[in-house]
Amino acid sequence: MHVFVTGASGWxxxxxxxxxxxAGHRVTGLVRSDAAATALEAKGATALRGDLDDLDALRRGAxxxxxxxxxxxxxxxxxxxxxxxxxRAAVQTLGDVLVGSDRPFLLASGxxxxxxxxxxxxxxxxxxxxxxxxxxxxxxxxxxxxEQGVRSISLRFSPTTHGTGDHGFIALIVAAARxxxxxxxxxxxxxxxxxxxxxDAARMIRLGLELAPAGSLLHAVGxxxxxxxxxxxxxxRGLGLPATSxxxxxxxxxxGFIGNFxxxxxxxxxxxxxxxxxxxxxxxxxxxDLESGSYFRA
Length: 298
What we know:
Helix content: 25-40%
Largest sheet: 7 strands, parallel
Distance between the termini: 40 Å
CATH superfamily of the largest domain: NAD(P)-binding Rossmann-like Domain
Strand order of the largest sheet: 3-2-1-4-5-6-10
Strand content: 15-25%
Low-confidence stretches: none
Mean pLDDT: 96
CATH architecture of the largest domain: 3-Layer(aba) Sandwich
Radius of gyration: 19 Å
Oligomer: single chain
Number of helices: 12
């Protein structure tokens, strides 16, 4: 299958491209730089220059492929409204191209905010609708295209998709520990974070492309909920720092914007995803990755 991948040079995107190529699929990846294009083509994929604001490039990529996997996001935490706007515009553009084609359209989403007081599941509908909501309400927008002949599939990622080279949320929490001299957690630290190794996430995406029906909500979750205090203690051991509670009202001051997320319970289940796809996470756990020291090397 010829697959168009946005965010093809990103953390999850790079692993996904490798997984797709390894399974015999052809890949065209959206990239923003010459260096990213060269790296992508060295793998055997085709590079398409552009970004999320280049809607013509998105149209060309989706129109010329048999499936689309949308993983790119601006992730501009200083201007979330702009990230939301760009995400909604991209999903609208890609969906419009695919109307009536019955081609797969997989898009990145997350497990945050799906449920309160319990782990979220694939049966939880996203509460985020409309352009002013988180991610611009892109998941619900994509699901609206199902009735228009698009095989939309949501890829809900854990708050940490971890592994060697990860520069996401865990790396930011490690950076906060270095900067403050303590490895913090919020409150009692018993709120859980779902986690998945990047290799497992990439394999789930490929299986979702091949097997999931229209309207599927897939959870890239390898561990349902690692207590944030346990995460902080592992970071403390890696850096030789004490693990310390941070008051909720001080979380953003201590961690930066990531403090809002580290204070949330983002536990989640992937039982239904595993049953649907025959997918079993086999990669290292989050604590194993932390204990390996990869997050603490300069």
